[in-house]
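Hi W., the adenosine-5'-triphosphate complex you wanted:
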Amino acid sequence: MISPDHPRYRSLEVRERLAWFAREGVVSPEGLAAHGRGEAFDYLLGEKTTESALLAERTAAAMLLSARHPVISVNGNTAALAAREIRYLQKATRAAVEVNLFHRTPERVAKVTRLLEGHGVEVLEGEVERLIPVSHDRGWSHHDGAAAADVILVPLEDGDRAEALVSMGKSVIAIDLNPLSRTARAATLTIVDEVTRAIPAITRAAGELSPGECERLISRLDNSNFLQAALDEIAGRLSHALD
Ligand code: ATP
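Structure:
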């Protein structure tokens, strides 16, 4: 049991949560390593939502609200960290939610689906096919899932599938704390923020934006500005780290 007074309480609590979900088979061992990479970047970013990430979150909300068929793609880490938050985002944007796993087994899909449904998320179920052109199991999709999306939110994605989804003509919104990852660079819009901060921020924005604001945010979208702002934030913090 971690004491709430501990200076790293939040981070340690999240680790404990992920370790528990790893033992339950929801999170893969590789997912724990991926979380570590995210943690390192979050540390460098000050473990807070930056101004530019907030603008990216508002832009993401605008894209999801303006979509014909918005989809939220959920992996094990995202489900373990943010199942309840996904429910509220699904309500606010009427997006379809699809489970998509790199280390995919029917048992893991069932576990992640149960976890999400236990938090009130409506999850696409039924037949899947290899509809996304990647060489691994993230290529499986429902006919109403990633394959059918015009706008797709991919928290904690891998670079291959992000590139494949973009090459299929989809607008891809990534949530990735690493502004240098292939996913971050391939996506139409990258939110450089921690997933449990990013998803509620998108939901809040979805409840506030008018159609005119949505149009304005989308027309101004330039992902390289968001990536550069994140790198500037890190560089600025590093150059004053010992002040
Ligand atoms: P890519 O193939 O895009 O270069 P990668 O190999 O660096 O990605 P993966 O292991 O596929 O990374 O995915 C993990 C990514 O998710 C990392 O870039 C990491 O920074 C990010 N990440 C991990 N945990 C979180 C989190 N809680 N919130 C936001 N991003 C996270």
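DSSP finds ten helices and seven strands in the chain.

W.
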